[in-house]
Structure formats: structure tokens, C-alpha cells
Amino acid sequence: MRPTFIIALLFFCFIIENNLFAQQKKEPILFEKEIKMSSDPFVGETNFYKTRSFFLQKEWDSTLVYSAKQLNQSVKNSTLKDYCYFFRAYSFNKKEVFKEAQKEYSKISSDFEFYSHVNIYLGEIAIELKEFQNAIDYFKIIEKSNDHKLISKVKVNIEHNLGICYLHLKQYDKSEAYLLKSIEAPEVKKDTLKLARFYGDMGVLYYEQYNDELAISYFQKAYQLSKSTKDYKVKQNMALNMAVVEENRKKFSESLRYRKEYEKWKDSLNNQSKIWEVARIEKEFAIKQKQKEVSLLKSENKAKVAERNGFLYTAIALLLLLLTTIYFYREKVKSTRIITTQKEDLDALNATKDQILSILSHDLRSSIIALKYSNRLLSDELAPNNLDNVNSLLDQNSTMVNSLYNLLDNLLQWALSQTKNSYFEITSLPLLSITEQVVYNYLPLMKEKNIIFTNNVLKSDMIQADQESFKIVLRNLIDNAIKFSDQDGTITLYTQNTHDMYCDLVIQDTGAGMTEETRLELLKDSVLLAKKEHEDKIGTGLGVQLCKTMIKKNQGMFAIESTLGKGTKMIVSLPKALTNG
Amino acid sequence: MDNINVLIVEDNPNESEPLVALLKTHGYTIAGVATNLKDALNIFYNSNTIDIVILDVFLNQVPDGIAFAETINAVPNASKPFVFLTSATDRTIFERAKLTQPFSYLLKPFNELELLYAIEMALERFYAQKNVFLSEDQDTVISDAYLYIKKGKGLKKVFLEDIIYIEVEEKYCNIITKKEKFVILISLTKILNLLDANMFSRTHRNFVVNMQKIEEIIPADNLIILSDNHQVTLSETYKGIIKKVRTLK
Questions:
Q1: Residue A125: pLDDT above 90?
Q2: Boundaries of each Response regulatory domain copy (chain B) (predicted)?
């Protein structure tokens, strides 16, 4: 019946090893912390950081991937390399690819901080691979090492593992010594679970040596202890051990009872698995539920964010609207101000225009009335053939018509200058000839007033001006001179060459003259003489305004010198012609 | 001296009649009064004695006056000086008229001085001799066929071929023709520049002779006998003209 027993024994040993790993569960928590702390200098390497975090999360596959990546980057730092190898080895170990794990462990250099651990793991792997002699070698190294802190922690396990190894190598003396040693600590600590296992192993040891009495006592001890543990696997194994032992003692009923118990624990284990399964499903369900809640919350959050964003956008839009409104309001205020000033200007201009219109119509009206009256006189005089009077009346009429014509002509020129639709070309002009041409029209008028006219302009005086606008200026100034001259007055035209660039044409009369006030008024821009002090003499001022505009357009200057009662000098300065100066 | 022949292009008789009268009083001859473009061109091209054209810008409300100027300007050698008559300084019309260089105009209403001035300006501009009639040292414009001389307020002309010789006296030149002898105001250098060198040659510091009027040259006496028994001196400096004279061989 020995073969059955051996199967059970091997099975048992395997369990022990697994448990041994399980036993270390608490230790790695500390160990992990240590690794984390001592590997901190390398977290700058992205791949290493990922490797480490996956390692700590026990994601073995990812750990392998990232450690490979890190190693592919031709790492020069040997410590960093060692960490990578360590993580890889550990991961392979966990994935039960022992050969690979062994390979990776062997690459770690001996000055690695956790090299003692490496030996432990190598020893454990050797046990897994049933290379018991190798395992013993590794464990021996640890036993002899100076790492007392580590040894104190793992001493019991190492001693037990050594015991197991010797047991498998059938070196029972050594095995017994180690196992007994390893039992000491759990007995002191009253670690029931460990004790049960260890007693079981002791049983196996003695049973192998056919020391059945001692073995059975250990098995029974282990069995009793196992009853008080909650580990089904231990319970199951102990029951199976008892069953095998009783069967070999031919105590079949006992054996059967133990078998049944073994079956029971096995079922329980299965049940437990089932329960776990259910629990897992429930957990999954709960997780799903939670997930749903989370997603609900997420969507709620999203909605909230959307709402908040909506508010934000609305606020921004409102702000923009407000700013635009303010901008446009300001613009409107500005344009209103501009419009207001323009309106004032326009009103002023319109008032001026109205003024001109009223004065003009008044002038025209009175002239026409005078003409009408004169015409009636004419017809009256014609009836008795009084031709002398007719002649003088005709002269008077032609004077009136002339002045009317001048007024209308000024009006036309003024309108044209306003619309800027008039032809304008500055050429060099012979001043004498032009003045003669203009004065020619006024000779009868002067003769009538018995005015002595002298034109002292030189033949060589040449100016730069637009012919027609200059003629308008001359016409107005001569007309004024005649208008304000008394009977037997003198009008003289002459030039002053006081300036290099300008030629001053002076129109001098010995007429009424004007006050300083009037003079300044006349020189002011676009102010019309509204006051009609002398009904027949003071005009609209339109002529002088027109003169000023035209002279300005010809790039000339205009000045008046006058003494009240003695006469007036109107001075027009125009650029000299460059040629033939 | 001959009168200046003026062609008037004006559709309104009320405007053209005073103009004709005014021109006549100042010794101008009216070559014709045309009232439309076609007539104007007919008269212009059928009479080769026209010296100047006075033309209204608007003929029957269309600016045919400008069209006339543009037409006669198209043939450079046949063109003559012209004066535009217009009643308003309307910019668009003026801009177009101005393209018919040389451009001179007369603004209605005008007095006689303005009219005479405009004619003078037209002649000066057309023959590119500015500041002649109003200057103190010159009163003659010279074209390729005539001398246009200011006489009183108006102008007269002398056919260049009629001149026998010119005698220079300081600032003046005595012009001797078959019929008459008169004085014009022009410098010798100017007149020599403007006259055709093939037609007129200098024979002496003070004499310019019409080559066609030379009857006989007596080098021994330094004398040139001209038609109508006029005689001028031939100085050593200018004896080269003998080569230019057609001689019988």
C-alpha cells in the first residue's frame, strides 16, 4: 500500500510549499515598502516607474512588458538593471514560469540590496523544481549570511524548507534536526496553523522512516490542531494523512471515517469555492451597480459641468453684449456730438445763406425798382422828345444794369467756387494787359464820376495766377474803388516789388475809406457785412469775400490799408512768374 | 502789310455779329462765319489764307467747336491757331478743350481788349513764341510764311516772300518790301533764328537779304543789287553766300 502513501506524501509536500508562499504574504508588504523606497531614485525613467507601479499592483504581465522595455533602452546603471531583473524574476515566479524566473534571478549582481531575498526565492524555485540539493545550497547561503534582520524574519521558514529538502533527499537525521528546530518558534508563538503543518511534516518524516508510533502521534497532534484552524486545506490534508495512516494500519473503519472527513473538507473547500464564486458574482454585481451609480454620477457631473459651462458662456455673451452696447452707445454719443456741432455749423451757414439771400433780394429789388422808375421817367421824357434827359437817364440805367450784372456775376462765381466745378489753371499772366482788359469795362463808369484813373503797372510785371479768378478779383476791387470814390476822385493801379517771390498789386482810391473796425471785419473769414449803414454804398461784402477766396486759391495774400475819409489801398500779393522776371 | 484773316465758327448771329464788327474795326478780315462743324471745315480747307479761327465751344448745344479743333489739329502742317469762345468755365468742357493744344480761350462776355488779347495769345502759343506782343522788346511773331506784327491794338501780317531785305537798327528791324518799308521790334538773333536759313541770308552785320530777291552781286564794290533797285552792302565775313546764289553757267 506504500505507493498510495507516496502520492499523498508528494501532494502534501507541494501543499506545504504553496502554503509556505502564502505564509510570506504579510512579509512582502514590508518588503514592498523597502523596494519602493530604495528604488525611488530611478522613478525618473518612465518605463521603470511603470514597471515598479505594476509590480506593486501585482500586474505581472505588465511588469514584464515594461521591464523589458526599460532593459531595451541599454541601461547603464547596474542597480537599475538589477531592479528590472528582480521584477522580471519575481513576476515569472508568480506566473510559475520557474525556469525563466531562475534565469532572471541569476542575472542579478551579488551587490544588489535584496540579494538575500534572491537566494530565498531561488531556493524556493529549486524546491518547486524538485532540485532539492540546489535548494539546500541556496538556503545554506542565507543561513550563513550576515543579514541578521532578514534571517530572524525567515529563519523558521528556511529551517522548515531545509527540513523538507532533506526529507526528500531521505537524509532523515538532518531533516529531523531542521524540522524540530523549525517547530520551536511556532510552539512558542502558539501559531496553530503552522504548528499543524509542521507536525504533519514531522509525521511524514517519521512515517518515511517507518517510525509509525512517533509518526502517528505527530499526525494525530497535527490533526487535532487542524480541527481548531479555519484552513480547509490543512484540515483536508490532515484528515487525508490520518486516513492513509489508518488504512496502512488496516484500521479501515477509522480510515473510512478520516476519508469521509477528508471528503467533507474537500467538499467544504469546493463549497467554499462555490461560495466565493457566488460572492464574486455578487461582488461583480455590486461593482456593476456601483459602476452604474458612478456612471450616473458621472453623467450628472457632466450635466452639471455643461450647465456651468452654459452659465459661463451666457455670462460671457452677456458681457460681450454689454461691452458692444457700451461701445455703440459711446459711438452714438460721439456721433451725436459731431452731428450737433455739424448742425450748429450748418445752421450758421444756413443763416449766412439766408442773410445773403435777403440782402441780395433787397439789393436786386431796389435796383429793379429804380430801373422801373427810371423807365417810366424815360417814357415820360420821350413823349415830349426831351432827348437830353433821356440820354442821362439811359446812362443811369446802364450803370444800374452794370452793377446788377456784377452782383449776379459774383453770385455765380461764388456758387461755382463752392461747388468746385470751375476750371482753374495757374499760368503766367501779363499784369498790365489783364488789368487794362478789366478796367476797360469800367472806363465809362469812371468817366461818369469824372474819376481820374491811372494804370502804372509795368509791362514787365508778370504774375502766376488763374486768369479768370484773378479777373474776378480785379473786377470786384475796381468796382469797389469806383463805388466808394467821390466825384472827381482818383484811382491808381500800381505794383510794389518789395518781395522776391510776390508781386503786390495796389488798387488805390481817394474815396470814403473805412473804419479800422470795418477793415478788420472785411479781413475776417466768411463774415458778411450785414449792417447797411449807407443804403446805396455798403454792399453785401460778398465781393470782398469772393476776392479773398479767389486770392487764397491762387496762393496769394490780401491786405487793406485805409484811412476814413481819405481813401483805401487794396493790396493783392500774387506769386511772380518765374520766367521773364 | 495785309490784314489777318479770321474764320468765325459761331451758331448764334447775336454773338457773331458784334464779334465781326469788333474785329473789323481793328483791321481784321473775316474769312467767313460758319454756323456748324461741316461748314466750318469746308471754309477752313477751301481757303488757304486763314490765319486764325475763333470758335464757339458749343454749336447747337453740342461741343462741335472742340471737335473742329480736334479735326484741324489732326493734320499738323495744315493746322492754324484757334481761340475757344465759351460762356462758362465748366471744368469738364475745359478739360476736353485743353487737350487740343495749343489751347487759348475767351470767356463771354468779353470786351475788345480781351478779344484782341486772346487772339494774340493764340498766335503766340501756336507758334511757340511766348511773351511777344505784350513785351517791350518785341512785337512780331514769325511763322513759316508770315510775319505777324502788332500794329496799334490789332495785328497785321507780312508775307515772307514779299520781303526784299531786312535792315537792322539796334533793337529794331526795317522791313523793306516792294510796296512799303516799316519797322518792327525784334532782335537780330531772334529773327535769324526764326527765319528759314535757305531763304534769308545775312550779308552784313546789319543786313539780312531774301535770296530770291538778289539781282546782282558785285563783290568788288561789296555790293548786292536787289530787285526794285535796292542795294545792300556785302561784308567780307558773309561773302560765302555767293556760293548759295543760283548762277548762270
A1: no
A2: 5-123
